[in-house]
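To the wet lab folks,

You asked to see what we're planning to order before we commit. Fair enough. Below is the target structure as tokens, and below that is the sequence we designed to fit it. If anything looks off to you, flag it before the synthesis order goes out.
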């Protein structure tokens, strides 16, 4: 039925729909005991066909699609042998959805997370912290030694010409997302204090600051059409998180969700992820008391919960259209 609906929509409008795309997310059972295992799940955009992809009784987080639609990556806590000692660590894994085969992409000491992939780039990008600071690194889809990105970035001055001084002791770059042409990356950085959103050109390594206001700006996501960027922002230290949209040049800031006004608790909207058509986005929201995954139209007029009521879910990632 999804394939038939997709064919009908394309015939009528000339554009692809969402019927053969899927969303992956991190979920755990609700209500839950202390420190429940977190697993990766997959679901259709209408909430049907929920599939549990991992059953490791561990912490599996921040899933992301590879653009072939056949593989995903995620971070998972597991036992590792480092220097002859058995210790718990975070491993960035590639997971083949057809065979279930898994491969380690990065298992360096510290953080190995937040990987994102683009069909127009031979590399992925993720956050690793084996140097002691969270930094962006370019990654091979088959593993291998990561290529430093953060420490090679030049930061344009806010006023005048030239570049700001860059100190490795201030590196704190996370949550990257590719532009659809594979030439730029948007990410969150706290190297100047409060986390803000930045865009870096991959070839020149020159970065521009995109946001300047708010207490905490995080989890940016670049539209598949290339014209917009979504991100989650907390305007004050005591406030809630909402999803905002902005142009890649910093213009036309628009608030997409409105979560204040709930006495006694914060109503948060976080972790936005674009649909492959650019007409919808998924995000995590706690309006029911625990977090679930919702799908909203880009004009903010329709919102639907797609995660099951007995699970708490975060970090959705909307995959490509199949076929």
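Sequence we intend to order:
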């Amino acid at each position: 039925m999804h394939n038939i609906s997709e064919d009908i929509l394309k015939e009528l409008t000339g554009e692809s729909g969402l019927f053969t795309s899927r969303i992956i997310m991190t979920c755990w059972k609700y209500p839950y005991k202390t420190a429940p295992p977190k697993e990766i799940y997959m679901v259709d955009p209408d909430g049907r066909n929920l599939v549990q992809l991992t059953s490791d009784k561990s912490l599996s987080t921040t899933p992301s699609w590879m653009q072939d639609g056949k593989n995903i990556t995620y971070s998972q806590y597991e036992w590792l042998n480092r220097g002859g000692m058995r210790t718990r660590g975070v491993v960035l894994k590639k997971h083949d959805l057809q065979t279930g085969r898994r491969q380690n992409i990065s298992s360096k000491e510290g953080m190995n997370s937040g990987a994102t992939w683009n069909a127009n780039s031979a590399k992925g990008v993720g956050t690793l912290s084996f140097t002691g600071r969270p930094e962006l690194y370019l990654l091979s889809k088959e593993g291998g030694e990561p290529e430093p990105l953060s420490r090679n970035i030049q930061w344009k001055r806010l006023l005048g010409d030239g570049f700001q001084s860059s100190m490795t002791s201030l590196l704190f770059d996370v949550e990257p997302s590719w532009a659809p042409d594979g030439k730029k990356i948007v990410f969150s950085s706290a190297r100047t204090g409060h986390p803000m959103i930045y865009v870096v050109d991959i070839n020149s390594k020159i970065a521009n600051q995109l946001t300047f206001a708010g207490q905490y700006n995080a989890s940016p996501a670049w539209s598949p059409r290339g014209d917009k960027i979504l991100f989650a922002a907390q305007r004050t230290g005591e406030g809630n998180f909402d999803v905002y949209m902005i142009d890649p040049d910093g213009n036309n800031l628009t608030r997409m969700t409105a979560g204040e006004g709930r006495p006694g608790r914060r109503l948060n909207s976080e972790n936005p992820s674009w649909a492959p058509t650019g007409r919808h986005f998924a995000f995590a929201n706690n309006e029911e008391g625990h977090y679930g995954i919702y799908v909203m139209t880009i004009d903010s007029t329709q919102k639907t919960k797609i995660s099951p009521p007995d699970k708490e879910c975060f970090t959705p990632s909307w995959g490509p259209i199949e076929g």
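Structural context that might help your review: The helical segments are 2-13. The two ends are 14 Å apart (CA to CA).

Thanks,
Computational group
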